[in-house]
Amino acid sequence: MGFLKGRDFLKLLDFTPAEIEKLIDTAIDYKQKKKNGVFHDDYKGKNIALIFEKTSTRTRCSFEVAAHDLGMHVTYLDPTGSQIGKKESIADTARVLSSIYDGIEYRGYGQEIVEELAKYSKVPVWNGLTNEFHPTQILADFMTIKEQFGSLKGIKLVYMGDARYNMGNSLMVGCAKMGMEFVACAPEKYFPNKELIKTCEEIAKTTGAKLSFNTSVDEAVKGANVIYTDVWVSMGEPDSVWEERIKELSPYRVTTSVMNKADKNAVFMHCLPAFHDLKTVIGKEMGKKFGITEMEVTDEVFESERSIVFEEAENRMHTIKAVMASTL
Fold this sequence. Notes:
The protein has 328 residues and is of the alpha/beta class. Helices cover 45% and strands 13% of the residues.
């Protein structure tokens, strides 16, 4: 039986530091079992539904493999496979699916959608990403940091670039909860939501966390243990914003020079996918249009020994497994 039995996993604000730490430790335990070939299919007979209004490689694969490892069956509903909010209300969808399934994952748009699903669902609902929060990603990030440094407390994480949405928000919340140092490094207009900053500052008073917001790259990255970035343009945003973001955020690209200004043992992290070269359709288009070969991170940093992005990507599966097992 999971220690969070019956709970939803919608945002890290809903959990105590001890609960977050236990989820990470549970994920580390599951990872060791998987590496050692120890079966952990304790959830045979369980069925889960994955609602993806926004498609994803890592999130879908992580949920599906985690579910299979735990012995569960999965139904994947892509953007055309569900009537949620179209022909059927969110409340009705929640009541129908929770009478058939033991757990429901939602990846899509507003946080209010996943919150409403959870309100009307009789079974746990898990947030696979909304516009505002991406809690399963942060668990994977923090698991990776703990593996790298042995602890989370006091770790300085600098988020470079657009910190207004799910990744900037969620990393700030996570750092506040876990007594870490969070720095958003960007032009002022790209800082997180002011109300959320206030909430996190209140949390930080109880955990010893530090939060700061800096437009200077040199000041922000000094002594940093983790340099983190994400794509400059989120899914669903119009092409018209590319030019503005490239112009305003290029000074905040993660380069070897930036990494060298951080702590000598600093690591680079990214939730992926990354525009570090021109080997994607969008990358080629933007390269041709704006005369650039990389965006938020240089290929040199991305492919360097300091980059732990693929360990981080693998850990999505282990932490999602921990979330599902702990709440079912």
